[in-house]
Amino acid sequence: MPEAPAVDGEADLHTHSTVSDGTEAPAELMRQAARAGLWGVALTDHDSTSGWAEAAAAVRDTGVALIPGMELSTREGYTSVHVLAYLIDPLDDALLEETARIRESRMTRAEEIVRRIGRDYPLSWDDVLAQTVEGTTIGRPHIADALVARGHVATRSAAFDGILHPRAGYAQPHYAPDPLTGVRLIRAAGGVPVLAHPGTRGAERVIPPERLAKLVDAGLFGLEVDHPENLEAAKPRLRALATRFGLRVTGSSDYHGTGKPNRLGECRTAPDVVEAIIAEGRGSAPELP
Ligand code: AMP
Ligand code: FE
Ligand code: FE
Ligand code: ZN
């Protein structure tokens, strides 16, 4: 075994590029990470690893380490649950099959949402495609951007608060496996699974211990406690759960470029936790400067 690399700075372990719903290309994201003074960054586009090569190619110039990752969509009933997947094998058959199915469903679901919105507001599928690049994992943010371009709303966030809010009746969910299946798939692909933003719905709606126990048994590594959208009231409960179940705690910005207010590096993960992730990841390797 080669010795694990020393991690001598903090990392932002949750970011998005134009491969999903971020607004910056992977290489630009790496340049911004250098300006933010980060030791490393994980690129975690939704249900896709296609930004890895471009980000890895920018490591030498930027001096920023890359932890290859993905944010896997899962669903528990009507609740969307995101699981960060670090250092997975990007060619793992089972994971590839599942992410292809999710992306396919994201596409048909987005077309259906656009059809419904189109009855009330001038909006076409081409308007949405104009907000993507080849192979983008499509989501509501791209529909939001199309609504902004059409002048129906001022910002992405305004679209989420209005036309794209479930209450408005246009949005509908896409296919996703349940979280337990997601965690198992990630471990089977050599990856390290971390529950993303588990406190956005407040302290009362943090995952119950008996459900978390099942994810831990399946190999869950950690909880993303420091996240701009986790509510403060939820954090003590999350830290207590981490201690009780022996989970590591990560901090990350969930940067989406100009698509969200989250600032790159505003939440960070400690070097010893990054080292532990690198030590457990078997499916791929970090790209170091
Ligand atoms: P979807 O992938 O279609 O389920 O849409 C969820 C994505 O929308 C999340 O990954 C966020 O990046 C984004 N999102 C959710 N709420 C907002 C918001 N208020 N403003 C901007 N982006 C948002
Ligand atoms: Fe997103
Ligand atoms: Fe997420
Ligand atoms: Zn995210």
Gist of the model:
The protein has 289 residues and is of the alpha/beta class. It is built from eleven helices and seven strands. The longest helix has 26 residues, at 93-118.
What can you see in these coordinates?
- This protein is α/β, with parallel strands linked by helices and 289 residues long.
- The chain has 2 domains: 194 residues, Metal-dependent hydrolases (TIM Barrel); 66 residues, DNA polymerase, domain 1 (Orthogonal Bundle).
- A 7-stranded mixed sheet has the order 1-2-3-4-5-6-7.
- The longest helix is centred in the middle third of the chain and has 26 residues.
- It is globular, with a radius of gyration of 18 Å.
- The mean pLDDT is 97.
- Bound molecules: adenosine monophosphate, fe (iii) ion (FE) (2 copies) and zinc ion (ZN).
- The site of one fe (iii) ion has 4 residues, from loops.
- Adenosine monophosphate binds next to helix 6 and helix 7.
| Spatial ordering of strands, largest sheet | 1-2-3-4-5-6-7
What is the CATH homologous superfamily assignment of the largest domain? Metal-dependent hydrolases
Order of helices and strands: EHEHHEEHHHHHEHEHEH
Can you summarize the main beta sheet?
7 strands, mixed
Count structural domains: 2
The outline comes out as globular
Quaternary: single chain
* Mean of pLDDT: 97
The value of Rg in angstroms is: 18 Å
CATH class of the largest domain: Alpha Beta
